Amino acid sequence: LLANAAYSCGRLDDANDAIQNVLKEGQSIEDKLDVYYVLVTLLMSSKRAEDAYSVCHEVLSQLDENIPASCDAQELAALLRKTNNVLNTMSDSELLGMKNMDSSDRLYSVLRFYSIMVVVAFFSKPQ
User: Fold this and answer.
1) Could you read off the pLDDT of 2-23 as tens digits, one per residue?
2) pTM for this one?
3) Which of 44, 57, 74, 111 falls between 20 and 30 A from 30, CA-CA?
4) Rounded to whole angstroms, what are the CA distances from 51 to 5, 22, 43, 55?
């Protein structure tokens, strides 16, 4: 909370100090997820996209996500088709009836870091 408040007020050094304290003292990855997210945001705003990407990669690895070094267009197209096929088999009522995620769900954290990682990757290498 302190890191987020300091970052929001533009006090980046204070935010970084609070972040480092939580990362040092936190017992588990779950203890550190919110502060890692603030760290990635701080790094992005400081034009340190490669560092932000590295932090996302590290967090996702700690959440047991295997991130390939590259993904070609065919693999991506196949993955999108598979996802589309699964969603097309579901009715509107099934989709609307799906359980909402909350921040305690592991999948919520995984998606949160993938989402910001995509933004970092796009703005650091937009071509």
Assistant:
1) 887 888 888 888 888 889 888 8
2) 0.76
3) 44
4) 22, 18, 7, 6
